[in-house]
Amino acid sequence: MPQYSDKVMDHFTKPRNIGEVEEPDGVGEVGNPVCGDMMKFTIKVKDNRIEDVKYLTFGCGAAIAVSSMVSEMARGKTLEEAKKITNKQVAEELGGLPGNKMHCSNLGADALHKAIDDYMAKEKVSAG
Amino acid sequence: MIVRCQVREGLISMKDINLDYAAAAPLDKKVLEKMMPFFTEHYGNPSSGHILGEKPKAAIEEAREAVADLINAEAKNVIFTASASEANNLVIKGLVKAGKRKGNHLIASSIEHFSVLNQLKTLKKEGYRVTLLPVDKFGMINPKDLEAAIDDQTILISIQTANSEIGTIQPIAELSALARERNIPFHTDAAAAAGWIELDVEKMGVDLLTLAGDQFYGPKGSAALYVKRGIRLMPQIEGGIQEKGLRAGTENVPAIVGLGEAAKIAKDTNSERTGKLAAIRDQLKESLFKAVPNLHLNGHPEKRLPHNLNLSVEFVEGEALLMRLQIAGIYVSSGSSCTSQALKSSHVLSAIGRPPELAQGSLQLTLGPNSSAEDIPYITGQLSEIAALLRNMSPLYHQYLKEEKTNASV
């Protein structure tokens, strides 16, 4: 088992914002069981801000901690701000991730961005 | 039970339950006692011509007798190595290099240890043909598949006695008979099996057999290879003529002595020790299946190593399970990709047809000297709680619940 930072262990043992928001405005899924990690982010958007964000995650300790951290980082941010969150920043906020976890488990920001893109695509359709 | 506190602040468990004895087990105290004098007192080199070498030399031969006795072989056909991996390398590379039998084809099972599989991969690159036999959903090889794979170019068949991960025991005698009819050398890697099930090279009909002391309470760095008379191997470590010239290097006398003592103990108390652990294993299995829904047994329901239990906890990933269990003071291993150095999920679980999500959620539980039925309620309670907690955040589980609901309403 890799050596995780205290911050990772904290988010792994006490993950924040688990679940799915009701009637989500955007849904973003990444990963698959073959690689071992899967994340599903759902967001609620109000006045261009992420009012609520939740996730479901199948994965290792790092994947769970990453999801939890991303949900905390994204909450309350404008969509533009949230789009700027990178996987690298998430890892930094977690006090670093073991090298081999950087690619396979650090997918939280990608899942969040997908949820935002999903929301924007729907907005476009309803506006158009 | 030993009480140990977890080092990390806030993550404290008063429990200390090892369910990963296949990874490492404590040395049997009797084994340690027997080894001790050979570190400082009888420290001589067995190859010396003078008196200092006498005791160590005699001790090595005594250990050779004990190991031979464990597998019903003759002592002169047993050599010592530093690991089962080394023994497996000596078998495959040594036999290919010896080139006694003309041919370019090797056969093994698809669930062999990497010390067999990776060598075959290398040989394939060098132009050899390799057939990896499939296994059924329990991990069993069908002798018909072996028969069909053999051709006139086959120079070696290597099939493990039992699988370390899922515990499945192969019908070695039946398989080796096919090799003997055609005069093809048959090797079995019995590293996971030795000390746990009866091994008899005559009954099994094998030409080569690998075993490892650390798998039955002997020291790490102690292993042996049985080589039937008439089988020619080229040494892979060249130098002096220790171990009949098959393995150069000054003998690790304490480790060899430890292996011999562990073999003696395993031979003497085999049925009692294994019977006790098999009973605890069966109780644990029953208790877990009762408490945790969507649990799957990996490996054969009956033909399996007595101390082995392998389960897949559906909808969750193994490393997360392993970490949560560790916080609860329970140590296990998993076949998930995240817990492997290579970041690949278990080749054994994929060979038995487990889909990736079930391979990712696998737990390998192996019992050992401190295993007790008293711990079963605690283990069951913890696994049940942890599985529920991780499932609650698993997209696969939520998807399953939705499908269940739809099915129920139809």
Give an account of the 3D structure:
The complex is a heterodimer of chains A (128) and B (410). Chain A has 128 residues and is α+β, with helices and mostly antiparallel strands. Chain A contains 6 helices and 3 strands. Chain A has a 3-stranded antiparallel beta sheet with strand order 1-2-3. The N and C termini of chain A lie far apart (51 Å). The mean pLDDT of chain A is 92. Chain B is an alpha/beta fold. Chain B has 14 helices and 12 strands. In chain B, the strands form 3 sheets. Chain B has a 7-stranded mixed beta sheet, with helices on both faces. A 3-stranded antiparallel beta sheet of chain B has the order 9-10-12. A two-stranded parallel ribbon of chain B has the order 1-11. In chain B, helix 1 runs antiparallel to helix 9 (253-291), helix 4 runs parallel beside helix 5 (114-125) and helix 10 (318-327) packs across helix 13. Classes of the chains: A alpha+beta (128), B alpha/beta (410). Chain A binds chain B through residues 1, 6, 9, 12-13, 15, 18-20, 29, 32-40, 55-64, 100-101, 104-105, and chain B through 8, 11, 315-320, 322-323, 326-327, 336-339, 343, 345, 355-357, 360, 392-396, 398.
For the biggest sheet of chain A, the summary is: 3 strands, antiparallel
| Helix-and-strand structural type of chain A | alpha+beta
Order of helices and strands of chain B: EHHHEHEHEHEHEHEEHEEHEHHEHH
Spans of chain B of at least 5 consecutive residues whose pLDDT stays below 50 are 1-7
The helix count of chain A comes to: 6
> Residue share in helices of chain B?
40-55%
Blueprint of the fold:
The complex is a heterodimer of chains A (128) and B (410).
Chain A: H1 6-13, E1 26-32, E2 37-46, E3 49-58, H2 61-74, H3 79-83, H4 87-93, H5 101-104, H6 108-127
Antiparallel strand pairs in A: 1-2, 2-3
Helix pairs in contact in A: 1-2
Chain B: E1 17-18, H1 29-35, H2 37-40, H3 54-70, E2 78-81, H4 84-98, E3 105-109, H5 114-125, E4 129-133, H6 143-149, E5 154-158, H7 172-181, E6 186-189, H8 201-204, E7 208-212, E8 223-227, H9 253-291, E9 295-297, E10 308-313, H10 318-327, E11 330-331, H11 347-351, H12 356-360, E12 362-366, H13 376-392, H14 395-409
Parallel strand pairs in B: 1-11, 3-4, 3-5, 5-6, 6-7
Antiparallel strand pairs in B: 2-8, 7-8, 9-10, 10-12
